[in-house]
Amino acid sequence: MMLFARHSILSLLFIGIAVFAVGCASSGTVGRSDSVLEPLGPSNWSEVETVDISEYPDVPVVMDRSVKHDVPEILMKSQADDGVIEQVDGYRIQVFSSAVQNEAVQAEDRIRNWINALSQQRRNVLGIKTTPVIYHLYKQPYYRVRIGDFANRSQAQPIVNALKSSFPGALVVPDVIFVKR
User: Between these two residues, 36 and 167, which has the higher pLDDT value?
Assistant: First the structure.
């Protein structure tokens, strides 16, 4: 019985391959070779088209050029960072340096008194527009007293020259300073 089933499957397979081979081997053409292709539309479209574009004038769109928004005026004028304090490389005047904290505190008081004693005319000559900030710093092992925030050395030099009579050790030193934009 098994032999019969195997024989019939092989026969069906052989017949299927033979039919497929005969169908693929035909040499006839599918379409007509004597047919001529005809154009689908007119050869000159201007003869057929009857649209007059002058009937449709091209009117430009009028746009409102004003912009309405909720952005604050200070941002629109690019002034949002005005008054912002940032740290930059600059210079300060070091007036005093000591390993003893009390001496640094006393020097700080003497500097404050010296600045307050300056007349407005003398401040103008030295280029002091506002009362300079006095910084009391500690970097082991020294307490240092520095004044001002100067963008360059030349701004600090006239004040150093005036300070030297009361504070002979005064000098301009590079430091990270605070500036207001």
Answer: 167
Nearest in space to 137 (alpha carbons), one of 167, 177, 164 = 177
What confidence tens digit (pLDDT) does each residue in 147-159 have? 999 989 999 999 9
Is residue 31 assigned to a domain? no
With 90 as the cut, is the pLDDT of residue 178 above it? no
Residue 176 Ramachandran class (φ > 0 left, ψ -120 to 50 alpha, else beta): beta
Q: Residue 112: inside a domain, yes or no?
A: yes
Residue 144 lies in a domain: yes
Is residue 103 exposed (0-12), middle (13-18) or buried (19+ Cβ within 10 Å)? Answer: middle
| Cβ atoms 91, 153 nearer than 8 A | yes
Cα–Cα distances (Å) from 31 to 23, 36, 40, in that order, read 17, 12, 20
Residue whose tokens read 């379409």: 31
- What range defines the domain where residue 167 resides? 85-180
CATH number at residue 134: 3.30.70.1070
SS3 126: helix
pTM of the model: 0.55
Q: How many domains does the chain have?
A: 1
